[in-house]
């Protein structure tokens, strides 16, 4: 996978180095990622969505699986058979029905977070079809942007860094 570096965040100090030429804006009612991608869904995502009253059989595609080498990672989020959209995407409004509880992969897209020791590198795929990448109205992926949009994810990784030192 060819990637473009966007930023690096130090998980101890929260200092961020970023590409000042890269901008991003998630476009309202776009939903392109909800049609184009196969979304991995973690056990934590499944549990969180089940708490909303959904059965895993309604939204987990047990026929599609993600692997890294021989290691099973996760199943995929189910797609609607009639149009290929995510089962949680409202086709009329193009809004996610579980937006505040959506899977981690949905929350992170189009970014890929890669942890290297006490640093987190953030990339986008070069072949990404996301129209929000380098959008003229987008904003740079600064420390402020990262903490606002992904603060809980960054905090989870920070806790792991601290635990690994103990």
TrEMBL record:
UniProt xrefs under InterPro entries: Puta_zinc/iron-chelating_dom (IPR005358)
Cited Pfam families: CxxCxxCC
PANTHER family in the cross-refs: PUTATIVE-RELATED (PTHR35866), YKGJ FAMILY CYSTEINE CLUSTER PROTEIN (PTHR35866:SF2)
Protein's recorded name: YkgJ family cysteine cluster protein
Taxonomy of the source species: Archaea, Methanobacteriati, Methanobacteriota, Thermococci, Thermococcales
